[in-house]
Structure formats: structure tokens, C-alpha cells
Design brief:
The protein has 13 helices and twelve strands. With 365 residues, it is α+β, with helices and mostly antiparallel strands. The radius of gyration is 23 Å and the shape is globular. The relative contact order is 0.11.
Length: 365
């Protein structure tokens, strides 16, 4: 490792949505809880640790979750409340550094190489932040501390919940060598299976493969894997991450087979999307319609406009065109609309006038 390194903290809230619900409703504390979905419809957005013991996790269907945990309690998500809590947590982060890169409502990177407290220990800063979150917000958080974002992200999951792990500069490579490759942030299920088939099960196995071998089997990602297993990851903490897309969707209580009923749902989705776009003060050109059928197969249809929009009526008109673009394959359980190609990527004068938007030093670790 280089003598000059950064000190990065990754803070990850513990079962954030579920923990907020348990905090706000003491009757739910200690009980298996799923946010989103239901025992009849929908998909689980988050699960409490009590529910996770039964195998309940995000992205599984409510029906499957209920089979795994018959006593599971379902609650509807309250995103306004989660955003409110997230802002309080973000404010705590900013007391220590302006270099805060939020990944979502419940996790963020902090670069504390130089920090507002003048504290040379990233480990102690992480402890203090977690203590303040618990005392001032009422929730627990876990943290990973290391020399780059990649290792810090992995480390934050090491002692969950309500724990932290520091991987010092001279420990990084040994730490990564022992890990199962599926624990590497960014290595998904498909890539992990491919690595297993090639006899790559741990970081140590990955480290034995020359760059040419990784290029051959993983293309453009080969260099990335070659570097990260050696602790090389130079991505900076970026305080102003640009939003790449904004969307809204609805899962229906009953499958829909009539486009007329779907149009009604698209109207409310468009209204919600307009609200989110205008709150963020952005517009977009590319509108995508997401259709999930009753057999859980997914289809997307997109259209790119010559100007930026964030008006619900225009979004709805485009979504309707996409709905009728081709015959539906089956009855529909979910519809969603998202908008991409946003004007936070570039400035333009072609937006509709009525809806336009102006748009390291070495320290003690």
C-alpha cells in the first residue's frame, strides 16, 4: 500500500425502513416486519432483522415472505418520513466533513482524511457518528473504515447490525484475500457464479489470475477486478452525485387486463412523477414505461423527446403511446414510469418554456 492514503467511512443504517417503522410504533419492536408488499400482493422493500432470520429479504414477493415467516407483519412504506430521518442523519455527517456522498437514503461515504473536528482517527470519528445517530435520531448504524470506498463498503457489512470494522492500510490485501468473491461490492450473482465455474472462490483465488486471463473472461471489468483485489480503488468521494433517473410505480391489488384501467393508473403515476421531478428541479427527455406481468416477466418501452419535460400531462401522453405501442403479453400486476436523459447532465434551451428548469496525507488510522 502507498504511504499516502485517504480515510474513508461508509455508514450504513441498519434495516433502515423497518427500523424507522419500529421506532415510530413501539408495538412493532422485536417483531418480524416487512415494509412494502402484503401477503397477497407486492414486493418487500425492506425487512427487519427479526424477519431476516426467517429468510425474508428485500425484492421477494409478499406471498413468498409470508410463507417463510407466517407471523410476518406488513406495513406500507412512508417515504416522506424516511427522507425526513435521512436528512437528520446527513446533517450529522456534515458536522464532520463536506465530502459526503449519499448512495441512498440509508447509506453514504464520508472522506474524513481532513475533517472539521481535526480528529486524526477515522475509527473514532465513525464511533462518534454512530453514537450521535443513536442519541439524536434513535436508530443504529454500522460503519466500515478503510483507505478507499470499495473496502469501506465491504467492511460496513462485516459487523452488522450496530457495529463497525476498520481495515487498516497494511491489512487491506489480506482482508480481501480471505473474502468470498460474492462479498465483493459490485460482483453480482451472475458474475459470482461465473467466477465459481472458473475456480475463483475467494479474493486469494482472484489475485492469482493474471490481467490477461481476467480480460479474456470478464472483458472491460477484468482490469477492475485485477485492481480491487489488490486494494486499488481510486474513486473519490463525490458530494454532488447527479441523479440519473426519476421514477414512480404502482403494484395493483388485482391484475389488470384492460388498457382503460391501466390509463387511470398511469394518470396517478404521472402525477407522482411530476411531483418528484419538480421537487428535484429537474426535467428529462427519455420516458420509459415499465410493465410487470402477472407471471412476473418484465418489459420496458421507451421514447425520447426532442425537449426536456417534467409536466404530468406530457408524461402521461407519452406513457399512453408506449402502452399501446404493442399488444400486452398477459395481465399486468405493476406499471411504472421513469424519466432519464436529465437536464442535470447538460444545459439546454429547448425545454418547454412553462416547465423549464435552470438548471492525501498519512495520519493515525
Amino acid at each position: 500500500m502507498s504511504e499516502n492514503y485517504r480515510k474513508i467511512i461508509h455508514v450504513d443504517m441498519d434495516a433502515f425502513y423497518a427500523s424507522v417503522e419500529q421506532m415510530d410504533n413501539p408495538e412493532l419492536k422485536g417483531k418480524p416486519l416487512a415494509v412494502g408488499g402484503s401477503e397477497v400482493r407486492g414486493v418487500v422493500s425492506a425487512a427487519s432483522y427479526e424477519a431476516r432470520k426467517y429468510g425474508v429479504r428485500s425484492a421477494i414477493s409478499g406471498i413468498q415472505a409470508k410463507k417463510l415467516c407466517p407471523n410476518l407483519i406488513f406495513v406500507r412504506p412512508r417515504f416522506d418520513r424516511y427522507i425526513e430521518i435521512s436528512k437528520k442523519i446527513r446533517k450529522i455527517f456534515l458536522d464532520y466533513t463536506d465530502l459526503v456522498e449519499p448512495l441512498s437514503l440509508d447509506e453514504a461515504y464520508l472522506d474524513v482524511t481532513k475533517n472539521k473536528k481535526g480528529n486524526p482517527s477515522a475509527t473514532l470519528i465513525a464511533q462518534e457518528i454512530r453514537k450521535r445517530i443513536y442519541e439524536e435520531v434513535g436508530l443504529t448504524a454500522s460503519a466500515g473504515i478503510s483507505v478507499n470506498k470499495f473496502v469501506a463498503k465491504i467492511a460496513s457489512d462485516y459487523n452488522k447490525p450496530n457495529g463497525q470494522k476498520t481495515v487498516n492500510p497494511d491489512e487491506v490485501e489480506a482482508f480481501l484475500e480471505k473474502l468470498d468473491v460474492k462479498k465483493f461490492y459490485g460482483v453480482g450473482k451472475v458474475t459470482a457464479e461465473k467466477m465459481y465455474q472458473l475456480g475463483i472462490f475467494t479474493g486469494y483465488d482472484l489475485k492469482q489470475k493474471p490481467l490477461e486471463y481476467l480480460d479474456k473472461h470478464f472483458g472491460n471489468s477484468g482490469l477492475h477486478y485485477y485492481q480491487i483485489v489488490r486494494g486499488i480503488h481510486n474513486s473519490a468521494v463525490k458530494p454532488n452525485r447527479k441523479i440519473k433517473s426519476v421514477g414512480a410505480e404502482r403494484t395493483f391489488g388485482e391484475n389488470l387486463s384492460s388498457e382503460i384501467f391501466m390509463e387511470e393508473r398511469l394518470q396517478s403515476i404521472s402525477k407522482e412523477l411530476e411531483k418528484r421531478l419538480q421537487k428535484s428541479k429537474i426535467s428529462g427527455k427519455t420516458i420509459t414505461l415499465k410493465i410487470k406481468y402477472s407471471d412476473f416477466t418484465l418489459q420496458t418501452r421507451s421514447k425520447t423527446l426532442p425537449y426536456f419535460v417534467n409536466d404530468k400531462n406530457i408524461i402521461l401522453d407519452v406513457a399512453k403511446d408506449l402502452l399501446y405501442q404493442e399488444r400486452l403479453r398477459n395481465s399486468v400486476r405493476l406499471l411504472g414510469i421513469s424519466i432519464h436523459n436529465l437536464n442535470n447532465e447538460e444545459k439546454t434551451k429547448t425545454a418547454l418554456p412553462q416547465k423549464s428548469v435552470s438548471v492525501q496525507l498519512k495520519f493515525e488510522f
